[in-house]
Amino acid sequence: MLLELVLFFAAASAATTAAAILGGVRLRIWAGLPLGIVVLAVAAGVVGYLMQDLNTGIVLAAVALGATLLMRLIFRPWSWIAAQLFTMVVLGGLSYLAYAGVLTFVEQLGPLGTLFSLLLWVLELLALTLSASYIFEICDVLGRRQRLRHRVDPDYLPKVVLQVPTYNEPVDVVGETLRSLARVDYPNLVIQVVDNNTKDPKVWRPLEDLCKELGERFQFMHLEDWPGYKAGALNEATKRLSKDVEIIGIVDADYLVDPDFPKAVIGHFADPKVAFVQTPQDYRDWSDDKYLRGLYYSYHYFFVVTMPARANRNSIIFAGTMGLIRRSVLDEIGGWNPDCVTEDSEASLRMLGHGYQGVYEPKAFGHGLMPLNFDGLKKQRFRWALGGIQILRRHWRDMIGAGTSLRLNAAQRFHYLAGSLQWFGDLLMVFFTVLLLVTALATVLHHELPVRRLAGSVLVIPLVFLVTGVLRALWAMRQTSRSSWGDALRAMRVWFALSWVVSLACLKGLTGARAAFLRTPKRRDEEAGWLHAIRSAKAETLISVAGLLGAIGMVVASPYPSTMALAALLLFQALAYANGPWAGLAAEGIELTPLRRKFLTSGQNVGDWPSPSRTPGAVPVVLAAAGVVLAVLAVLGSPSSNQAPSAPILPAVGAKPTEQPSPSSSPTQQPSVAPSPSPTSRSSPKPSP
């Protein structure tokens, strides 16, 4: 019966995905319910055909219909198809886990085989849980017909300061930002430029002169050798503000701000329970380049899917730039935390935990510049991911309801816990890739690994999950961002390209509490751009080549359907990691307009931060050594065979990396990736705490 469950819910999730993509996700119940029944009938027919037992398929369809009804009652704002999609994906994952768990103990694997199989089952559990969190966000946004709105009082006009933190920012870039702020239409406004640890006076002195030129609305402060990174600088800047400042806003040094910000959103603060308001972080100067278009939509996803889903339950993050925060609440929680590299999202968790509300305003009021330098992008994503793990380490007790310092409700705990855990999708991808590489090596050498096997019709399940997951990711991006299929695919490739970097950040966050920043290879004199791109992504390139060779070797050594399924999964992993060098090469090919040339030396572009620290340079070596040891032990410790195994192990239900549209100063990621293009692991399409 477990096999029938797995096949039915896999077919039902695939068919419901197709129905949603073809326009059914927002159908009213009078149209969505009949469509859902037809979809379940198709899944019942698939099971009846494969198992020669139509009655079982009909019974399972009735169970699925009842489960969807229950889900629809729990999430009343959702459409029927959205409720059915989420239900089928969750039940598909649970049925697979049940099947794999039983198989682990039914097969006589011995102590070592049982242990390895249990570890594999735990990895699959984590991966499928992350997948469920992504599909929940998609259903909650695309399947919801009505949006929650917070009232704005247009007559509420408190004194506001907009802080512009800078570090090694050329005046040509920051000057445009400051001039846009000079045009802001707000009666009681101060612009505070906070230069933090810029060493060269030739860089920060012109900023000081420009602030004097722009008038008394502008204040400039330069902090030399100041501790605490960006958080420490902002804490000091806040202390120096006059007592009558009630609201503080953050604007990155490369943003052009609309004249109606913050006036258009400041009225939310008339409600004394509102602690912060976040608007989307948007970007400019990207539409002429295909790589930049993909990068833009990879950022955008967070603000059109993740943040709206969180906003439905008062669980948004404060993403820093283009956000406003109530000064009294910031003081109440003790200011920005200098021990967290994503101090903004960490502060929002504490504010919500003190009983306050965060408001998400979906209209963008400013446009910044995205990193042109792929090394800078990797440093930025490393920082976001590391910050997400730091938040998890610091607040995990409160996220699971066992802490006493924060008063979070169940929905807030869910969103913040899921957001932090989503970063681990990329690390799970590494583990699954290692398992697939070990499997390939064992297959080529005609050895058998001591791990449970999947065989027969269930072998198609990983590919079904993988294909439908990819389609859901692309569909969600197209629906929310109005992107083309090509741009959506390029955005996904950017998520994949950052997967290895996010994995390193996860390991660093788990093994060290202190801040660390990614160190990338410096470009050598006269070094060709393509060579630097490959050298900067050598780990991803090696993994990709190994995966490609492993997939070919598996097919040649054991040309059976089961091996083909595993080879396809390994090939997918290889192609995913190949996006690392692709992104580096694509970034090298960006046409440098006058604006982009100005931005090249910006700290925002190169990813530098004011306080250097030790970097996790040993992490790749540790990972590689662990993989080699695992492979050697697995191959030498298993019996050899003169024939290729007819049903190699299937180490995962599918695997992919997913991070996390992304705020310019907070994790979160994002992110990951995103809905998960597969039910196992993903690169966060967005930064998420």
Give an overview of the whole structure:
With 689 residues, the chain is an alpha/beta fold. Among the domains are: 2-106; 160-372, Spore Coat Polysaccharide Biosynthesis Protein SpsA, Chain A (Alpha-Beta Complex). 57% of the residues lie in helices and 7% in strands. It has helices at residues 2-24, 29-51, 54-74, 80-106, 110-142, 171-182, 201-214, 229-239, 290-311, 327-332, 343-353, 374-399, 410-421, 424-444, 460-481, 485-497, 499-511, 529-536, 538-557, 561-588, 594-599, 603-606, 619-636; strands at 160-166, 189-196, 218-223, 247-250, 256-257, 274-278, 282-283, 323-326, 357-360, 366-368. The strands form two sheets. The protein has a seven-stranded mixed sheet with strand order 3-2-1-4-8-6-9, with helices on both faces. A three-stranded mixed sheet has the order 5-10-7. Helix 14 crosses helix 20 and helix 15 (460-481) packs across helix 16. The radius of gyration is 26 Å and the shape is globular.
List the main descriptive attributes of the protein structure presented here.
single chain, 689 residues, alpha/beta, Spore Coat Polysaccharide Biosynthesis Protein SpsA, Chain A, 7-stranded mixed beta sheet, 3-stranded mixed beta sheet, 23 helices, 57% helix, globular
CATH topology of the domain at 160-372: Spore Coat Polysaccharide Biosynthesis Protein SpsA, Chain A
Lateral strand order in the biggest sheet:
3-2-1-4-8-6-9
Corresponding CATH architecture of the domain at 160-372: Alpha-Beta Complex
What top-tier CATH class of the domain at 160-372 fits best? Alpha Beta
Low-confidence stretches: 612-619, 629-637, 641-684
Bin the helical content.
55-70%
Strand percentage lies at: 5-15%
Radius of gyration: 26 Å
Q: Determine the N-to-C terminus distance.
A: 40 Å
Specify the overall morphology.
globular
Query: What's the main sheet like?
Result: 7 strands, mixed
Number of helices: 23
Q: Would you tell me the overall average pLDDT?
A: 86
Question: How many beta-strand runs?
Answer: 10
Q: Report the CATH superfamily of the domain at 160-372.
A: Spore Coat Polysaccharide Biosynthesis Protein SpsA, Chain A
Q: What would you call the structural class? A: alpha/beta
